């Protein structure tokens, strides 16, 4: 039994994506070819690695046992390629970052632009999703989270920085509606926030923390909420680092009402052995910390 590395890559793609078509898109081959390669690999391994159903491909017990070995082989191959390429030069290849859309929209473009300028052979992919990323399925090489998952032998977690959030509204909205002097005055105003049953992390339940339980205009996207507030639709919670993008936004109740949250960098534990990933993670963390500080101090009211 001597499986080749190409078959191992096909196995890993199907294991993570649980679909021949999705694996085919990632590997840039047609699904039928993926299916044949899986069947050949199972024959070489002498055991069924996947349970096939209309819902997709799920790992069998044998497949689960093989997965850990395949991931170690993948890491060893990546490490060998790094060493051959040399670690002192610029970063290269492709790195995918998963992030909540507030971070992805207002921070990552500037931070990643700077990293890309310094590493012209590096391709950076930013995946903005209003949910928690599944790193075990390699949806991303690393992710930024608003809460720290429990570290394990598969994940490492590192705090990047704190950031502030404020109640805010457009100046046009505040002029046209009753004055707000204390928190209870918000009861008569239009509130903008998350769709309650789509809040994917308790750290995002901002309005509940402020004792506000009704949302007049809701979205699962921070960017949609931000644009609704900026256009005069009502009052909502806005990241301090986003307010530089909307000079006509005003804090409601000033700095008296603010929330503090944190960003965390979440990585595959095995990637800590890869100098390329370590260098990128360090640049990303330092860049985010500096950008949050710069934008939060852009305007003092």
Automatic annotation (TrEMBL):
Q: Does the keyword Cell membrane apply?
A: no
Q: Name one Pfam family in it.
A: LysR_substrate
Q: Which family does it belong to?
A: Belongs to the LysR transcriptional regulatory family.
The protein's matches in PROSITE patterns, at most eight in alphabetical order, are given as: HTH_LYSR
Q: Which GO terms describe its biological process?
A: DNA-templated transcription
Q: Name one GO molecular function term.
A: sequence-specific DNA binding
Entry protein name: HTH-type transcriptional regulator GltC
- State the organism named in the record: Thalassovita autumnalis
Please verify whether the record's keywords include Transcription regulation: yes
CDD domains for this protein: PBP2_LTTR_substrate (cd05466)
Q: Which SUPFAM superfamilies match?
A: Periplasmic binding protein-like II, Winged helix' DNA-binding domain
Q: Keyword set for this entry? A: DNA-binding, Transcription, Transcription regulation
- In this chain the HTH lysR-type domain maps to 3-60
